[in-house]
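Title: Request for sanity check on Small conductance mechanosensitive channel prediction

Description:
We are preparing a figure and want to confirm that the structure record we downloaded matches what your pipeline produces today. Could someone re-run it with the sequence below and paste the raw C-alpha cells into this thread? We only need the C-alpha cell string, no images.
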Amino acid sequence: MDEPVEEPVTEVANTMWQEFLNFLQTYQVPISVVIIIVVAVVLRFVLIKSVQKVVTQIVTGAKKSQNVDDTQAIIGSPLLAARLVQRTRTLGSVSNNLITITISAVALVMILGQFGVNLTAVLASAGIVAAGLAFGAQNIVKDVLNGIFMVFEDQLGVGDEVEIGEVSGRVEAVGIRITQVRDVHGTLWFIRNGEIARVGNRSHDWSRAILDLAVAGDADIELAKEVIQSTAETVVRQPRIAARVLEQPAVWGLEYVNGDQVIIRLVVKTRSGSQWEISRVLREALKLNLDQAGITLSSTAPVAVSFSGVDGPPPTPRKPNDYRQGPPKSGRRRNTQ
C-alpha cells in the first residue's frame, strides 16, 4: 500500500525540481541582474554606514584628537574643533561619493555583461567620451582634484584665518570645488579650488600674538621691559586666557631704535585663532600698567618694523581687505599700541 504512494511523491518532487531549474535557466539574465543590484545596494549601505561610524567617532573624539586636556580648553579653541569636524565630514562625503560611483560603475559593467554586451567596445567608447568630457571640463576636474588634495592635506578648514591670492579673511566653508572666504567687510568670496596656488593659513596648529610697543626714546627701557613682562605674565594667568596660551610670554627686546622712540616686541604663543583676543586683552593691561609706571608711549607716527632674526623673512604684502590687520605698508608690520 505504501509503494504506490512513494512513487508519485518522488515523481512530483523531481518534476518540481526540474521546473525550478528550467525557470532559473529561462530567467537567468533577469535573476542575475536582480542579484547584482541587491548585492550592490547592500554593499554600498554597509560601506557608507562604516564611513559614517568612523566620522562620528572622530567628531565625538574631537577633544582627544585636539590634544586638549579639559573642556575649557576646547571652548577656548573652537576653531580647531570646527576644523576637525569640517575636515572629517568633508572626507566622509568624498568617501561616500567614491563608494557610490565605484559600486555603481562595477554593477553597471556586470549588468551589461549579463545582456551579452561587448564590454571591450563599451569601455573603449566610454574612455573616448570620458577623455572628451575631461578636456571640455578640465577646469572642473582641476577644481575637484585640488579640493580633494586640500581636504586630505588639511591645508585649510572652516574658521581658519587665511590669505588666498587677493582675498584675506575667514574660511566659512570648504567644498570639493569651491572654498568660501568672508573678508573683514563682510563680503563672501567664492574661490575655485583649481585657482588656489598658495594658501597662507594663520590658524594652523598654533598662532603667535605679537605686540610692538612704541616707547618714548627717553624712557627707562629696562623698567619698560620689566613692566611689559610682568603684565603679560599676569594676563596669561587669567582663567579665560590661560587655557588658550601654549607658552609663557616673552619680551624679545628692541625691534627698532631712533631718537624719538624705541619699539619693544612682546610675543605669546597661543592656540590657533586666539591671538587676536589675547592681543586686545594685553594692550589694555599694558597701557594701564605702563601709564602707572610713568612710562610714556610714543606719540609720533607708527614706525614700520621689518621682521628679522628669529622672526623669519619679511611677510608678503597684506591686501586692503585683510581680515584682522587692515592695510599696513607693503612687506612691513605695523606698530601696535
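Thanks, this matches our download. Residues 181 and 187 are 8 Å apart (CA to CA).
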